[in-house]
Amino acid sequence: MYKETKVQPYFDNITLKDFIKSDNPSLESRMKGLRSFTEELFSHGHNLYRRELLSATDTVVKVKDPLTGLTKEMLMFGSNNYLGLATHPTVEKAVMAAIAKYGVGMGGPPLLNGTSELHNELETKLAAFKDSEATLLFSCGFNAIGGWLNAMVREEDIFFYDEYNHASLHNALLGVRCKKIPFRHNDMTDLRRKMEFYADKVNEKWLVVEGVYSMDGDIANLQEISLLCDTYKARLVVDDAHGTGILGLKGSGAAEILPREKVFLHLGTFSKSFAFTGGFICGSKDSINFLRYLSPQYMFSASLSPMVVAGLLAALEIMQSDTSLRKNLIENTNYFVNQLALSGIEATSSSAIVPILVPQQYNLREIALKLHERGLFINAVEYPAVPIDKQRLRISMMATHTHEQIDKLVSNLAEVLREAGMIT
Q: DSSP readout, 365-404?
């Protein structure tokens, strides 16, 4: 049970935005504010950003400890390498073979000299995986988000989106002059009300949701969302960055439950389950061809390197052939949540992401520091990445974690949260 206590003043209640506030919002004053913020973090021993990894991203990693400067072995619970493919021998072998044949880079954009047989093969196989006609590859997921928005959404369009959509969408929307309508997270009543308000408008309508929401680990209600799109004539776009490779009977993602024609575009990134970098969009041949020639983020970015594409092809093959990884991941997440409950820690998850909310009156940075000192690599997420009253420990499970490693995580979490006064 969470225990309520009075709010105590401490440095950890101060956010980055508090330091860059100024009556003179010049760049110099904002840079000075940021410098003061990071200096305060260091002086309190709380700056755990950019911890330097000295080994591959696996369940156990070596880290250059920012507190001591020494090498520290830690259990990794902060990586989106959900299926453990970052160190899979088959993936590593494919990368090395591609380097021997193609070198390390293309040296240009995809429309000119940046397309290889590997790129074409990945586009074809990924489209089939996503039950789509075609695929477009991007240098990163961030570009994929902005790439379709800049090319397809017009000023007169009406754009509905979940308020918890990733920051990349919010950022991309800054450059799009359309009617922007956020709705409360996963609240179908609020979404229906807002879509009904614009029902008589003939403008093109869009609805963008995430298959799995990155900070809460919950899943979009895609079946009801799809019905609303049918009712109010909106195109559905699903960003399944955290669902691809994990959800669905074949692991293609949350949108696998919908017929092909119900999803206009499938978006994703290769930096989660695939364990690489890059992004993609799947859709009809016409929509992908449209983006291929009109998306600036696609046209003017260098192509993914052939060694990355070869590794992605190997990772995709493993996702489709080795279902044990997905099963292990689900089992590990369920085991973790159940063990947390036995220790008096409240948490739920429908994916590989398990958030543990830390009420605002508790010292999140001190909790994160103590977990770091105990050899647990966990990401503490604070405002403005999440609402100021929704700070959390964001724990990422991997298919390759052992129960022994998870038990160590739970026992240390319980001790640290008990010392902080969060649980009894």
A: HHHHHHHHHTTEE-EEE-TTTS-TT--EEEEE--TT--HH
- Mean pLDDT of all residues in 225-241: 97
Task: State yes or no: cis peptide before 110, omega within 30 of 0.
Answer: no
- Classify domain 11-76+323-420 by CATH number: 3.90.1150.10
Tokens representing 122 are: 């990945």
The residues facing 63 across adjacent strands are 53, 72
Identify residue 274 by its one-letter amino acid code.
F
Which two three-digit tokens encode residue 331? 């089992």
Torsion sign, CA atoms 178, 184, 187, 190 = negative
| Residue ranges of the chain that CATH labels 3.90.1150.10 | 11-76+323-420
Mean pLDDT, to the nearest integer, of 400-423?
A: 97
Residue 32 pLDDT = 82
- Give the pLDDT score at 8: 33
pLDDT digits (tens, 9 = 90+) for 308-342: 999 999 999 999 999 999 999 999 999 999 999 99
Residues contacting 154, CB < 8 A, separation 6+: 178, 204
First to last CA, the chain: 7
Where do you find CATH 3.40.640.10 in the chain? 88-321
The whole-angstrom separation of Cα 358 and Cα 324 is 33
- CATH top-level class of 88-321: alpha beta
Cα(47)–Cα(209) distance, integer angstroms: 33
Q: Which amino acid is at 366?
A: E
Task: Indicate the DSSP class of residue 248.
Answer: S
CA distance 189 to 183: 9
Per-residue model confidence (pLDDT) at position 16? 63
**pLDDT tens across 110-165, in order?**
999 999 999 999 999 999 999 999 999 999 999 999 999 999 999 999 999 999 99
More confident residue, 34 or 240: 240
Task: Give this prediction's pTM.
Answer: 0.91
Laid out side by side, the sheet with 392-396 consists of: 353-357, 392-396, 379-381
Region 71-95: mean pLDDT is 98
Amino acid (one-letter) located at 188:
M
Cβ atoms 22, 33 nearer than 8 A: yes
Task: Report how far residue 252's alpha carbon sits from residue 240's, in angstroms, rounded to the nearest whole number.
Answer: 9
Residue 424, both tokens: 């009894």
pLDDT of residue 389: 87
Q: Checking DSSP bridges between strand 52-53 and strand 60-64, what pairing results, if any?
A: antiparallel
